[in-house]
Write a structure and sequence with these properties.
alpha+beta
């Protein structure tokens, strides 16, 4: 080993180890042993206090008997003193009690008999201390207490040693009872501990010394190997660089999180030398950590789609093929970049079309009962004019003709035009003359596609709907079905993108529950449902932001509109509020006020319009309309640094939704930069993760002692369960571990998958978490969609009495799984404080 490296080794390893040994030994004799000594003395004092109280109780017993007339007071005192004189305790059964009065005079001493009945006023120990006078003073002031003095060793009058006694007054007789401990006993216990600790410290020091010798020897070997490895690494790097340069596709080589080489093809694709870029995220729209986490098997490459940022400010769609390589002991990555061709785009569009067709098929397989409307009726004797006025007043497009409680026909707008107006028919005639009869009807349990087939086959505009008794109780029209078919995702998004005002967007948003209910009734999985809701909400947010920018003018600098909470996790339901913010690039101080003023106006406009559409204002004011959440990138980094490094339990709980942020509009680089900052800052912050874990550990399932679900709201009438509260520990668990392992995903199901891939959770827990999450979201969506169809505001509360036994048992099983999560958290994070 070179002289400089050897010196560095001794300074960095050997010297700190020696200092650690020295500090260890010093701490034993300066801190640990004195602490033991104090603890032993405290235990001894507590012991003699308890013993004295026991003897005091004996005096009280004789006093009570004297009071009851069983003995005279003098007899009671003699018997009590005699009993206490015989009491012995301790290892050798030589420790004792003594009694004096308040004069002081000795009432009883078991060993120093010559003191019995003697006046102790002038009695002093060898150090001149009037110990019995001191005892009377202590009990006169406090009733009890400790005194220290010199006294003979037990029954050996030739040996005088330090002693500590506890004295307590027995007020009815004016007596003071006391007993003590010999400090020599304490010193002996301490000496035994010192000998043991000294032996342990010698053994530890010897062990560390041996380890140091082994380390030094191994370090010399490692240094020689390092020199050899350096030359091999250089050769390996040259080989990989030659491989990258020879590739016909745009190729990068990454080592130690940095781009160390890029070939001419890739440089031509982006318009500059990629190695001049400081960050992977300056070139690609996704983070390097996300790319790395996608690699399950180091022997296999993975592919993913993203965008690259070119020198001319354009963005290109590309497919990345990522392979892991070994460069010495380090991991490196070869990334082959291929621009998406026209054929790829066609395949992508075909996939989207397939999803649309699947959605349409799901819609067409729904029962028609969700589209059925009540019927407008008129009697057969009604005139055409009266029927037309009724139809106009009720704003309907069809009226049913009734005779003797039976529906015999139907008249729609087309009938009034073609059979009355066009033929100049007398409007005083009966409606029977223009009605269509017999009425074509369909069962309320029929499916949507069956209604379409029947409408087309009979060439009619309306169908009567029969209940289970065969009675016509409702109507469904061709227009209703056409409106239902327009609720496909792509159609809704196209309408949103073309909308010119908030009212139009609001009407489109109101159609979303119909689509969601159809998907729920078809048994579609919750991931597809939340994906659809997120797609619609993102499209609405983007359109509202663009409309706001058109109104306010172009922004003064790059920015991104972020969403947090359920929207950030792409887990919105039909009952959700806003959680959003604005992040903009750092600008010069003189331009900061102008930027804040613009983006605050933008935030207020967007939040107001989102509320008008149906996304309620946040109760906690976590919105882009709040100046606190409209800040430059540097300030946002400060926010997260403070939440992470100066965390308090409540502040961590309140800030938890911010860690689910994602961008929906604007410059994605700002959001990626902030995510990288969070991942870097959380590293090693055990206190932060401890506080995050506490909010999950505090969750208590609403179960009584018999395992029965109880009412969370204490209404006493119906057992209500807040599904959002049940989901919270699962969502929080996934958030915590994803942050701990620095994963960029915000969606809970995606987080669960990544945690399983990283082997953070076993396969059994992965399956249970996915099933639990999907089940809770399913019944949550089901309850919300039913509320909307009943014209009730959707929420997260379900009535347990309306669930089946299997559904209730499943919820109880989920409570058990949450308990397993808490056990894992307790093991991983409780000891991190």
């Amino acid at each position: 080993m070179a002289g400089g490296n050897l010196k560095k080794f001794y300074l960095s390893i050997v010297l700190p180890s020696i200092m650690a040994i020295a500090l260890f030994i010093i701490s034993i004799f300066m801190i640990i042993i004195p602490s033991f000594e104090r603890n032993i003395l405290d235990r001894k004092k507590e012991m003699i206090g308890e013993l004295t109280n026991t003897a005091w109780s004996l005096l009280e017993e004789y006093h009570i008997e004297a009071m009851n007339g069983k003995f005279t007071q003098e007899e009671a005192q003699q018997m009590a003193a005699g009993r206490i004189e015989q009491i012995r305790y301790g290892n050798e059964r030589k420790d004792y009690f003594w009694i004096i009065d308040m004069h002081p005079s000795m009432i009883m001493h078991p060993y120093t008999k010559e003191l019995n009945n003697a006046d102790l006023t002038e009695y002093m120990d060898p150090n001149g201390k009037r110990l019995f006078v001191e005892a009377t003073r202590i009990v006169a002031e406090d009733g009890e207490g400790f005194i220290d003095y010199m006294w003979q060793w037990k029954d050996d009058s030739t040996k005088i040693v330090p002693k500590l006694s506890y004295v307590k007054e027995f007020e009815p007789w004016g007596w003071i009872i006391g007993t003590g401990i010999y400090l020599e006993d304490v010193k002996e216990e301490i000496w035994i501990i010192k000998k043991r600790l000294f032996g342990i410290s010698i053994l530890i020091s010897a062990t560390i010394s041996v380890i140091l010798l082994i380390v030094i020897r191994q370090s010399l070997k490692i240094e020689r190997k390092r020199k050899l490895a350096e030359s091999e690494l250089l050769l390996s790097k040259q080989k990989y660089e030659a491989l990258v340069e020879a590739s016909t596709e745009g190729t990068l080589m990454i080592l130690n999180q940095s781009i160390i080489f890029s070939n001419a093809t890739f440089n031509k694709l982006i318009g500059y030398d990629a190695t001049t870029s400081k960050n992977f995220e300056d070139i690609f729209q996704l983070s390097l950590s996300k790319v790395i986490s996608a690699i399950d098997d180091p022997k296999k490459s993975v592919s993913m789609e993203t965008q690259i940022f070119c020198a001319d400010k354009s963005e290109k769609e590309v497919v990345l093929s990522v392979s892991e390589i070994k460069h010495g002991t380090d991991k490196g990555y070869i990334i082959v970049t291929k621009e998406i061709t026209h054929r790829n785009q066609i395949e992508k569009q075909a996939e989207q079309l397939t999803q649309e067709l699947q959605t349409s098929l799901l819609l067409m397989n729904q029962p028609i009962r969700h589209l059925v409307k009540d019927i407008l009726k008129c009697p057969a004797e009604c005139s055409i004019q009266e029927a037309a006025l009724l139809l106009s007043r009720k704003n309907r497009n069809a009226i049913f003709v009734q005779r003797d409680e039976e529906i015999i026909g139907i008249i729609n707008h087309s009938d009034f035009l073609n059979r009355v107006v066009a033929e100049n028919l007398d409007t005083s005639k009966s409606v029977i003359t223009i009605m269509t009869s017999p009425l074509i009807a369909i069962s309320e349990n029929a499916l949507l596609y069956e209604a379409v087939l029947l409408l087309n086959d009979r060439n009619v505009s309306h169908l009567g709907v029969k209940n289970h008794d065969g009675e016509i109780t409702g109507v469904v029209s061709r227009d209703d079905i056409a409106a239902m078919q327009q609720n496909s995702v792509s159609h809704l998004i196209r309408e949103i993108e073309a909308a010119q005002d908030i009212d139009h967007i609001h009407k489109i948003h109101n159609r979303l529950p119909v689509l969601v209910n159809a998907l729920i009734e078809s048994g579609d999985n919750t991931y597809n449902i939340t994906r659809i809701i997120t797609s619609v909400s993102d499209a609405i947010a983007k359109r509202i932001i663009r409309m706001a920018i058109e109104n306010l003018g172009e922004p003064p600098c790059d920015f991104a509109f972020m969403v947090m909470g359920s929207e950030g996790r792409m887990e919105q339901t039909l009952s959700t509020d806003q959680d959003n913010a604005i992040i903009f690039e750092d600008v010069r101080a003189e331009n900061l006020e102008l930027a804040i003023d613009y983006f605050l106006k933008l935030g207020k406009k967007v939040s107001h319009d989102l509320n008008a559409v149906g996304y309620k204002f946040c109760d906690g004011d976590i919105m882009a309309s709040n100046p606190k959440w409209v800040q430059p990138l540097s300030r946002w980094k400060e926010y997260f640094t403070q939440w992470i490094t100066q965390s308090e339990p409540q502040s961590v709980l309140e800030a938890s939704i911010f860690f689910d942020f994602r961008g929906v509009f604007g410059n994605a680089t700002l959001v990626n930069n902030l995510r990288e900052h969070v991942n870097t800052t959380v590293d090693g912050k055990s206190v932060f993760f401890y506080h995050m874990a506490q909010s999950i550990l505090k969750y208590k399932p609403p179960l009584n002692l018999f395992g029965k679900i109880i009412d969370q709201n204490h209404s006493g009438v119906q057992i209500k369960l807040d599904i959002k509260k049940v989901l919270l520990p699962i969502v929080s668990f996934c958030r915590l571990y994803s942050l701990f392992h620095r994963q960029d995903e915000t969606n809970t199901l995606a987080r669960i998958k990544h945690l399983y891939q990283l082997q953070v959770i076993p396969k059994s827990m992965y399956d249970e978490l996915v099933l639990s999450y999907n089940y809770l979201m399913h019944i949550r969506f089901r309850a919300q969609s039913r509320s909307i169809l009943l014209n009730k505001p959707p929420d997260n509360i379900i009535d347990i009495s309306k669930l089946t036994h299997i559904e209730v048992s499943t919820i109880k099983k989920i409570f058990s799984e949450i308990s397993n999560l808490q056990t894992m958290l307790n093991f991983d994070f409780k000891g991190t404080m």
